[in-house]
Amino acid sequence: MSKQDFVVPAGKRFRLADHDTAFTGKLDKAQGEKKLEKARERMRELQEKLYAQDEWALLVLFQAMDGAGKDSTIEHVLSGLNPAGCQVFAFKAPSAEELDHDFLWRTSKCLPERGRIGVFNRSYYEEVLVVRVHPEYLDGQKLPRGLVTEKIWEERFEDINAFERYATRNGIAILKFFLNVSPDEQRRRFLARLDEPEKNWKFSAEDCSKRDLWDKYMAAYEDMISNTSTEHAPWHVIPADKKWFMRATVAEAIVAQLESLQLEFPTVTEKQKKSLEEARVMLSKKA
What we know:
Elements: E1 7-8, H1 29-53, E2 57-64, H2 70-78, E3 86-90, H3 96-99, H4 105-108, E4 117-121, H5 130-133, H6 152-169, E5 172-180, H7 183-195, H8 205-211, H9 214-228, E6 235-239, H10 243-260, H11 270-284
Parallel strand pairs: 2-4, 2-5, 3-4, 5-6
Antiparallel strand pairs: 1-6
């Protein structure tokens, strides 16, 4: 496996068996942490240009099983960015209001504005993951009965692809990360949450119950990634058993995406330059 293999090509059948959750290449932890810091420094430079240019926006989307490290990855990778240009949204169980709207409503209203980086901790993809593994959740969405057919997941894949195509056509670049953790590593992290008092709050009995449905979740992930990794919004499947490697790899992918936008500070016009010189003269005068 190489870094290129982290990106799932459009139209390719995705198989979890082809992806090593503990892959680190030839890196050790110290090297990985240096790569992370270098990427964060470059990210800060590019964010300033993104904000100043005010044309592109970037959506960074995370999906994973509980315990894979979504929260800590967001914290470590994005630390140091200007908060004015970065927004993070965490999507949990939908509210009554959200259930009265279409399944894309609650996330589409959170898309980043031009010049900003938006982060989704979980997303509209929950609608083809959790809802698929627990189809009884569809009842709460109050869809017309005739619309809930065997094709509903295929139809939702189509809707998501169209939504992402629309977003990218409107200047929102999309980065999608699946943090791929093994069941054994997840178990170790859950036990750590139980052993460390300061992490007890992060543990829920529901986390354990989901482990009984691991195979169903993995099947849903495979089908989802296979059907929604597109040229305009491909999935990045990141090995998540080693957090230091996961964070460095995510950070470098974000930097690569920002660099691909060819961001530049706005060019100052002659009229603006004249105005700046006039301001300099005024500020140079003694009170």
